[in-house]
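Checked the freezer inventory, then went back to the computational side. Two predictions to log before the end of the day. The first one is the construct we discussed on Monday; recording sequence and tokens without edits.
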Amino acid sequence: MNQSAVEHSLDVLVVGAGMVGAAAAALLARSGFSVAVVENGEPAPFDPSQPVGLRVSAFSPGSVNVLNEAGAWRQLQRQRHCPYRRMVVEDRDDSTVLTFDASEFGLERLGTIIENDLVQWSLWQSLLAAGGLELFCPDRVAKLDYDTGDPVVRLQSGTGIRCRLLVGADGANSQIRELQGIGQSHWEYGQQGLVGVVHTSEPNPGVAWQRFMDGGPLAFLPLQDGSSSIVWSRPEAEALRLLDMDEASFLSELESAVSGSEGHWPANVTHCGPRALFPLTMRLSERYAGRRAVLVGDAAHVVHPLAGQGVNLGLLDVAGLVQVLIDARSEGEDFASDKVLLKYDRWRRSEAEILARGIHGIRGLFIPEELGFLRRIGIDLVSRSWTAREAFIRRATGRNGNAPALSRGTTLTDMLQDKRRVT
């Protein structure tokens, strides 16, 4: 592509404006980079009069810090959301229980349950308000070339964009990953996650509850009105059977699954709204950096929802990328050089694989009933060790020592001022 065919030239082009891509674009624009975003469809306005959406996420305190720096948290606080301060994990029956209380670890909350659609819409408002940012929507990438080393993207609309760095935030079936020739390891679990919103005889008191059962875990996540969002992992045939049941039959099976949790919640299930399924997989990219390009979020990795860390992992990618790029720019380096992108790749790929393979191993330990004895011993040992539980909580809340500075509470303003003082 020759220079005359390029209408736009900028620092960073982000492909995909889901939760992770929009957060990346907003943070980079707020950091002084010139940014453009390509997205195939603008999110629908959030309507609080509608029922709670079927897809929600548990945002860790670290992710909330990232969303705040991206300019979305103030908007989210004005809409429905539900903090949870207690997490309970049970093994099949309530004889083996692991609990986490926020106050025990000096936290105000362990996480916040928010609808995915609300988060994406709020981040979109941040993009609309951001200076130094262009939106190409609706549009798609049609072609990727390189000219004097820089990525040059041709969109389906015919627009040509030259950038110094290309960010692939375009989901599990990432076009950018494919164009960069980056391979993936892919595991199909042969399971589906059944989601829905349920009401109980007693409102959910702000507890995230999970029970490991034959075939997969069942989780209840608290919602603002006292109802709960459920995620029930089942083998595919069983999940389809549950989806096709009438409400009364489904409630009977769900009630049977949660019975015996006396003292830990949940109460009797009285009503369930619409249900849906999504496939459970694990995908790990062989690298997160390409030729002046990086992958973030689901484009780089997809993890089992057992620990509810998928979107948190993506937001940590974004925070890590922003930190690496700011550091490089402050030191006068080419922020899209192989050296800089390799630093991001090694850092975030290591963290993601530790988490993804850890969840994979936990899943393998919990499902076979023949491992029940060892499993119950392990849970009991962890429940008795504050150090083990504290280490788990630090990682789950995005506050472990290797987490990006933004997730640990450093503001973007402080990061930029520190770098200016150094230079």
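The second is the one RB wanted added to the comparison set:
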Amino acid sequence: YHALAIFASVWVSTMTAGILAPLSGWLFVSGSFIFSGSLYLLAFTSIRLFGAITPLGGTLLLFGWLSLAIACWKIN
């Protein structure tokens, strides 16, 4: 779903001149990288610190959805 959201943020950014749509794309990319990457590192290394980083990625994904929703709302 987040890969589709990245495409949606690019599409919305072509319709609006604001910064929220490109910001949402970067939030989705960085959130997916941190969320998935920390879980992969936790699985392969068993270092528990990587599990503590995972919620940061999830928070970035939530902010990505929020900024995309606000950007879509501003189109109308």
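For RB: The two ends are 24 Å apart (CA to CA). The mean pLDDT is 93. Let me know if you want it refolded.
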